[in-house]
Design brief:
single chain, 659 residues, Neuraminidase, four-stranded antiparallel β-sheet
Length: 659
């Protein structure tokens, strides 16, 4: 086993004295990716467009699925729930809505790429509460064709672009009365001034601004402007490959500059983030994508607090897209989240920002691979919960990043012992109580350390509760072990309501000892073979699909704990049973391993592992005096530590992430 961190005798002496300090650089804001809803074809499929938010409800479109298989308009409660189909397309009233919606006066407005009387697309409206699709205008080729972009509304008029059609079959800028009527062609593209505008427009001071995917001096697209009343197209900037190429996305305007993304071009050919003066001029490349930090950004940006945020369709650790940020003045790309084919994949659409949370859609991924609605929430600072036991009495500590812990005690309850702790993504801790008869009780506790829900299970003859975890959907996953053959049963519990179970094994020589649930609701199950000093880590998806990775053998080492952070990376705690040295494995999405070693520290044993909400690993050490030392370990291996106890009669049991 390789170890990447060593500590001095001076550090060891500080630990033994009860408190260890080290430099821990301030961490940048981290985010938690949550899948809010899955599309299943019947309620829509392949949502290529972004969302809008109004009154606690998200609204959007899907390009496929629904009753007639050619797309839907849907709504979704921002706090979670079922997808509601507000309207479906049938070809005659439009087909394949690739653009997002706008909302005005209780009515949703949008475009469809195809369908309508001529098959070249439509402008439509739908009541915000749902109902029939009203066709406001149709495209016939000569007045435009295939509008991929969202609309904007100003002064009773809807404005947009078509990707094709017009006098030169290279696209148009158009307007339509909000109540419906004839399409007015405001400008046409001819190649030299741009071609194939896929993006929505921006209106400022009587001028419309946008991008074209193709055309211009180099054939790689342009940034353009046109008077809102119509007229000559002005080319503000052209792309040449090195400064970007093929901008699908629309623009945002701030401080006299237009900001956007290109789908291709740049140093690695994977796209760029750029800005252009609103009056025209050279393209400033603010950042370039290189695959690992994202690839092929399709959607417009969001600007907040001096930072640009967006999505890439591909790239990232799973090559299924990313959410990223870039300083508005340019600089390094920060990857805030990565997608995979299980939780979500390929975000064509951009983001919306509300209350510090980003919302968006992915075109694929999810249970049926029909796409998802997701949220990206700022991760709170990484506190910790610690569970103590005193002869059947539970002590629960809420340990903040700085300051003193808040504590509460429960019991004692005759015959019951607090044996494990867990926490959910909302910062609620859970306590697992067990009895010698095999019965268990799961408690949900509020962040203010008040009991909110409890439920008992068992006893079940021959079965012992081994561990538990809580998923982002709030379900408790309770791991049972059959004492005679080490077969496993996992309860998936909605506290106070329903429960399902799934069994695995037995597998000769192996015992499942730890369970975790990642932010995509995939179950991580840790098996150990103590005789061979090996471990096997399973990933079980919500559909039941299983993958596994084996670790070891590592002579003299045994795996003790498992934890998964909001980054969906598994951490495993290994202990050298002779020296009591600890090694923390972090398992990346490509199954590569980073390990960091700590100790040995005389008299101390590694005895618990968690992952803070800020992404730091928590490592719990205990000694024979029942003292607790908590290491808060950053991704770079730097750490701080704090010591607690001893407290007469109290024994430290477990640690988990806190708010």
């Amino acid at each position: 086993m390789k170890h990447s961190v060593q500590f001095s005798i001076a550090m060891l002496l500080l630990l033994v004295s009860g408190l260890l300090f080290a430099v821990n650089p301030a961490c940048a804001q981290t985010y938690t990716l949550s899948t809010l809803a899955f599309f299943d074809w019947s309620n829509g499929s392949t949502p290529d467009a972004g969302l809008i938010l109004s009154g606690g409800t998200l609204y959007g479109t899907t390009t496929e699925g629904g009753a007639h298989q050619v797309g839907t308009v849907f709504s979704f409660p921002v706090g979670g729930g079922a997808i509601t189909t507000l309207a479906t397309f049938n070809g005659s009233n439009g087909s394949t809505p690739g653009a997002g919606l706008i909302l005005s006066g209780g009515t949703l407005y949008g475009t469809t790429v195809y369908g309508g009387s001529a098959g070249y697309g439509t402008v439509f409206s739908v009541p915000v509460g749902g109902g029939a699709v009203t066709t406001l205008a149709t495209f016939n080729g000569s007045n435009g064709a295939e509008p991929y972009a969202s609309l904007i509304l100003s002064g009773g008029t809807l404005y947009g672009t078509t990707g094709g059609g017009g006098a030169n079959a290279a696209g148009t800028v158009f307007s339509v009365p909000v109540g419906g009527g004839a399409v007015t062609t405001l400008a046409t593209f001819k190649g030299s001034n741009g071609a194939d505008p896929w993006s929505a427009l921006v209106l400022s001071g009587g001028t419309l601004y946008g991008t074209t995917y193709a055309g211009g001096a180099n054939g790689n697209g342009t940034v353009f402007s046109v008077p809102v009343s119509g007229g000559t197209i002005t080319t503000l900037a052209t792309f040449n490959g090195s400064n970007g190429a093929k901008p699908y996305a629309g623009l945002i305007l701030s401080g006299g500059r237009l900001y956007g993304t290109t789908f291709a071009g740049g140093v690695s050919g994977d796209g760029t983030v750029f800005s252009v003066p609103v009056g025209g001029g050279a393209v400033a490349t603010l950042a370039t994508f290189s695959g690992n930090n994202g690839s092929e950004p399709y959607a417009s940006l969001v600007l907040s607090g001096g930072t640009l945020y967006g999505t890439t369709e591909y790239g990232g650790a799973g090559n299924a897209g990313t959410v990223f940020s870039v300083p508005v003045g340019g600089g390094a790309i920060t990857t805030l989240a990565t997608f995979n084919s299980i939780n979500a994949a390929y975000p064509y659409a951009g983001l919306i920002l509300s209350g510090g949370t980003f919302y968006g859609t992915t075109s694929y991924g999810g249970t049926d691979n029909d796409g998802t609605v997701f949220a990206l929430t700022p991760t709170p600072a990484g506190g910790t919960y610690a569970l103590w036991n005193n002869s059947g009495q539970a002590g629960l500590w809420k340990i903040p990043v700085s300051g003193s812990p808040t504590t509460a005690s429960f019991g004692p309850y005759a015959g019951w012992t607090p044996t494990a702790a867990a926490s959910d993504m909302s910062g609620n801790p859970y306590i697992l109580w067990t009895t010698t008869s095999g019965a268990v009780a799961v408690w949900k506790v509020s962040p203010s350390l008040k009991i909110t829900t409890s439920q008992s299970f068992g006893p079940y003859t021959g079965w012992t509760a081994e561990a538990f975890a809580v998923g982002p959907d709030g379900h408790v996953h309770l791991l049972w072990n059959h004492t005679s053959d080490n077969a496993v049963s996992i309860f998936n519990i909605t506290l106070g309501s329903s429960m399902t179970s799934q069994s695995y094994g037995p597998f000769k020589g192996w015992q499942a000892t730890q369970i975790a649930v990642d932010s995509s609701n995939n179950t991580r199950l840790l098996w150990t073979d103590t005789a061979l000093c090996e471990a096997s880590l399973w990933i079980i998806t919500s559909s039941g699909a299983q993958t596994s990775q084996t670790f070891g053998p590592y002579s003299g080492w045994q795996v003790q704990n498992l934890a998964v952070g909001s980054d969906n990376l598994a951490r495993m705690l290994w202990e050298n049973t002779s020296t009591k040295q600890a090694s923390v494995f972090t398992v990346a999405s490509d199954n590569s391993i980073t390990s960091r070693a700590f100790g040995p520290f005389s008299g101390w044993s590694p005895s618990g592992l968690g992952v803070n909400n800020d992404g730091d690993s928590d490592l719990m050490w205990t000694n024979t005096s029942n003292q607790l030392s908590l290491f808060d370990i950053s991704n770079t291996g730097n750490f701080t530590s704090s010591g607690y106890g001893p407290y007469s009669g109290w024994v430290p049991v477990a640690i988990v992430a806190g708010p």
